[in-house]
Design goal:
Blueprint (H helix, E strand, L loop, with lengths): L1 E4 L5 H13 L7 E5 L4 E5 L8 H5 L4 E5 L19 E2 L5 E2 L4 E5 L6 H14 L3 E3 L17 H14 L3 E4 L6 H6 L4 E4 L7 H7 L6 E4 L6 H12 L5 E5 L15 H10 L4 E3 L8 H13 L4 E5 L19 H16 L1
Parallel strand pairs: 7-8, 7-14, 8-9, 9-10, 10-11, 11-12, 12-13, 13-14
Antiparallel strand pairs: 1-3, 1-4, 2-3, 5-6
Amino acid sequence: MIIQLKPKTTEKELQRVIKRLIKDGIEKENIEVIRGDPHTVLGIKGDTRKLSEDHYETLESVYQVIRISDPCKELTKYFHPKGTTVELSNGHKIGEGLTVIAGPCAVESYKQLLESAKIVKKAGANVLRGGAYKPRTSPDSFQGLGEEGLKYLAKVKKELGMPIITELTDIRDLKLFEKYDVDIIQIGARNCQNFRLLDEMAKVDRPVMLKRGSEVSVTEYLLAALRIYRGNRKVILCERGGKTHDPKHRNVLNLNNVVYIKQNYHLPIIVDPSHGSGIRKSVAPLSCAGIAAGADGVMIEVHCNPEEALCDGDQSIDGEIFDLIPKLEQIYRLVQN
């Protein structure tokens, strides 16, 4: 339920409404105050069936009462009319201005990571990506360097001054992520509904990017994000597409989800056109389409030598990122205006 107060409502009048809610059985921790201009809004979580809209609308300071049936009500724009921003260690805010996350799918060596990072840094990317742990379908595929990969990420972060994002696949590795100061913990598509892992992310005091699972509906996805958000407000969504029966496409990037989420929910959302297509030539046009659909940024696989990549070389770009980022910035400005 949302209770919208009248403009210029005083703090004393606000507290009077809160006391009434508590008296009517709502726990204080389930009452969220969102101060806006000109209205202040009270967001009431949990079971609000015991509350009467008619009763609260008779209160002098109440403008209107809105009952919300959305199971992810805390993530709706009713609760937060302004979009949420997630600030990183370098001051960049995801959700405020274009965000470009770029780098290799997997950390293969220090030299490979540094060369790739220099490309994306020079091109204007905000965050360096690179997988230290790679959950691959085949046990014979490259599985990542593990802790050694985290060491390389931390070293390159220090050298270039770029925040880093990498995927956590096992909660037992969380201490290593903290040790090497990973700026954004990525929960990959395979773990989108790994509820025990999500619950642990709710206890973490650093940004978490949650990728949508291939077969996970948008509602299931938002509920997964909500598990993290209730303990950790630094949640970033990522649409990375889903499988298709058409053999021409590895995945199809679902821009419907981007539009729907941006229109109705307040968390920032990134698109991943690399996994969303699996095809190098599709990365640039799908990146542009994602930003045009309202995404807050893109996550792109960039490798210093895609033909020699140990992981996802077919969907990795290299110097093309220099032409791509200016286009994305132009589209972002047009969409925001």
